[in-house]
Design goal:
The structure is a single chain. By secondary structure, this protein is of the alpha+beta class. Helices cover 32% and strands 31% of the residues. Strands 18-17-16-15-21-20-19-24 form an 8-stranded mixed sheet, with helices on one face. The longest helix is centred in the last third of the chain and has 24 residues. The chain is extended.
Length: 675
């Protein structure tokens, strides 16, 4: 068996939510590191007193009890891990891993046992549930009950608000034992020291900070915050870029709350020139006994140094400061923007910190890769993108291009994955002002779209131009050489515009008001018959609602639709008969169609070329005596041809629809060249 046992994907319950991480059993200690927060729990092997193996919701779990009264619970083990862990505990910790069954009867009557910071409710000597007293935020007593209220976790999907226990009237022992271990912040006694009117960036404002032995009290004009030292994860002391101010940042988990706003970081801003003489509200013996030389009763120095020294001693955590990184300007930070707010990015030895709105702390362990991207507005800056293993991306933009080399070398030294590693060698090309050697994707896209539009215009011109224009164009192309062909190409756009303008009226077809109306479909026949009944069933219904309701009713008809299909077919036949009679009586559609003209061949064309005589005009008048407003197509075309021949002009008049132009007579051979 090896010296260590490691398990991944082990979960720890924190106020109703599961945080995954890695658990390692070593000879000297048991270490658990959270993947989410990076917080490390270290249990010395000499302090382990009891270990239990239990079946829980996430498979199998281990409950470890120390001689100091602390209890740690980890879930997510497999059934096969029991033997391996049990042997390791016997060999190295001299502790037996015992199996413990939980009660699942669902009874609400039992006994309560206090085991260190844990309240256990047992039924028949088997634990039904356990409450960490550190999660209790308030303990209230009634006539014969005690109510425990809990700290809320914003990341938990479901939160337990309170639990009520029945106790005999007048019994205060239960309440006192809960309060002795509960995380109920009570400002009893005097503060160790007070820092007045400190400038705070998040939450914004000026606050008096009162330091108590177990918590930190922020007192402002509007809001008060009590921060237990157990919620402090990290401390940072970072210099401002102007070298005249200092940031002191406190990382919190869980965060402090102000309405719906959560503050995961507490950021204080100090001036280096501010000095302070501090005297602790304790005797020298108490200071020495409690803090072991980390603090003294009387201290003096810079204000930020005094705050950092006191917080380091009370929280018992190290203060993180910048490492060896130096930017282009000689400072330990980089000016950039995040979410449209300007701030400072600090490359640290184990992560990145952005100050200040909103504050961001990214550990190297949770970074998947980084990317150097071109600035969106100018080539004088670039963007630095950080992607986490959870898929979240942080983009720090508007970084001066002079910082590129320093930042790239730092990221490479920390062995972070870089997406566009080739940009290191070509960084001058990426950040160059000149556009000669750059690949401009936008410009290339515009060129491609221009080519597509030109091809589309050429295809439209070839379809819309007449045969005479094509013959002239081909002749000119074949005969022209050198500059003539170039001039011919330059003249074409003007002709294209002219052709497009003349084509527009041709699309409009005149409506024949005397023609029979087209038959309605089966649905509309049914709708006309059913519209009144729908209105009667739904009084006040709108037109759109009638259509919607009618569509639903039509789909529900089923076989009854065949009846209306038959009526629609009968209406269609009547329409065809009426249309045939209308054409025979000299209606607007009595002219032969395109198919009929093709069948007849050149006979009709020869007749049209001869023009119409006076007798022909009389016959046309006789045909149209029944309706003075109606004129047949032959009559219109004959008038056009005769008027054009009299005037001797070389252009045809465009009147009527497309069919009228096709039937109209062609101009004489002398005018055929002009169009």
């Amino acid at each position: 068996m090896g010296d260590t046992l490691e398990f991944s994907d082990i979960y720890q319950e924190v106020k109703g939510s599961w945080n995954d991480g890695r658990l390692r059993f070593g000879r000297q200690s048991v270490v658990y590191k959270s993947s989410k927060t990076g917080k490390v729990d270290s249990i010395p092997a000499a302090e382990l007193s009891q270990a239990q193996w239990r079946r829980v919701c996430l498979g199998q779990g281990i409950k470890l009890t120390t001689s100091t009264g602390h209890i740690y619970k980890y879930d997510g083990f497999r059934d096969t891990d029991f033997e391996k862990i049990s042997e390791y505990f016997k060999a190295h910790y001299k502790v037996e891993l015992s199996e413990k069954e939980l009660c699942v009867k669902g009874w609400n009557w039992g006994t309560t046992k206090f085991s260190g910071p844990l309240l256990s409710f047992e039924v028949s000597d088997s634990p039904a549930f356990e409450i960490p007293l550190a999660s209790v935020s308030q303990c209230a007593t009634g006539k014969n009950e005690v109510t425990l209220e809990f700290h809320q976790n914003d990341e938990a999907e479901v939160s337990l608000m309170e639990v009520r226990f029945y106790v005999p009237p007048g019994d205060t022992v239960f309440r006192d034992r809960v309060l002795s271990k509960a995380d109920v912040i009570q400002a009893t006694g005097d503060a160790v020291c007070i820092f007045k009117e400190l400038q705070c960036l998040t939450p914004r404002g000026r606050y008096d900070i009162r330091i108590y032995p177990s918590f930190l009290h922020l007192h402002g004009k509007t809001f008060d915050y009590k921060i237990p030292y157990t919620t402090v994860l990290r401390l940072f002391l970072l210099p401002h870029k102007d070298q005249r101010q200092m940031f002191f940042m406190i990382s919190l988990d869980p965060p402090i709350k102000q309405g719906q706003t959560r503050y995961h970081f507490l950021i204080l801003l100090f001036s280096k020139e501010e000095d302070l003489s501090l005297s602790l509200n304790m005797t020298e013996e108490e200071v020495e006994k409690r803090y072991g030389g980390k603090l003294s009763k009387n201290m003096s120095g810079s204000l930020y140094e005094m705050v950092g020294r006191v917080m380091k001693a009370l929280v018992n955590k190290k203060i993180t400061v910048p490492g060896n990184f130096l930017g282009h300007s000689g400072t330990q930070c980089i000016t950039c923007s995040y979410k449209a707010s300007s701030g400072l990015l600090y490359p640290l030895e184990r992560g990145f910190v952005y100050i200040h709105k909103p504050p961001v702390h990214l550990r190297f362990e949770e970074v998947s890769c980084v990317n150097f991207a071109r600035g969106t507005t100018t080539t004088r800056s670039f963007d630095f993108e950080i992607e986490t293993k959870q898929g979240t991306q942080f983009t720090f933009s508007s970084i001066e291009r002079e910082e590129y080399g320093k930042l790239f070398d730092f990221v490479t030294a920390k062995k972070l994955s870089i997406k566009n590693r080739g940009f290191k060698e070509g960084k001058d090309d990426m950040l160059e002002d000149s556009d000669e050697d750059q690949h401009d994707a936008y410009l290339e896209r515009m060129k491609e779209e221009g080519k597509i539009r030109e091809e589309a215009n050429d295809s439209d011109d070839s379809d819309g131009e007449s045969g005479e224009y094509d013959s002239k164009a081909s002749a000119s192309d074949s005969s022209a050489e050198g500059g003539d062909s170039d001039r011919e190409k330059k003249k074409r756009p003007a002709k294209k515009a002219k052709v497009v303008k003349e084509r527009k009226p041709r699309k409009k077809k005149p409506k024949d008001s005397g023609a029979p109306k087209r038959p309605m479909s089966a649905y509309f026949l049914w709708l006309n018959a059913s519209r009144e009944s729908i209105k009667a069933e739904h009084p006040g219904i709108s037109i759109t609602e009638i259509s919607k309701r009618a569509g639903e009713m039509w789909r529900e008809l089923g076989k009854e639709q065949k009846e209306w299909d038959g009526k629609a077919e009968e209406a269609k036949k009547n329409y065809e008969v009426a249309m045939r009679e209308y054409r025979e009586s000299g209606g607007g559609s009595s002219a032969p169609s395109k198919k009929e003209r093709k069948k007849k061949g050149g006979k009709s064309d020869e007749k049209n070329k001869k023009g119409t005589s006076g007798g022909g005009r009389e016959r046309e008048r006789e045909r149209t005596t029944g309706n003075d407003s109606f004129k047949s197509r032959e009559f219109i075309s004959s008038e056009e041809s005769s008027s054009e021949s009299d005037r001797g002009k070389g252009k045809r008049k465009r009147k009527g629809s497309d069919e009228l132009e096709e039937v109209a007579s062609t101009p004489p051979s002398s005018d055929s060249g002009s169009d």
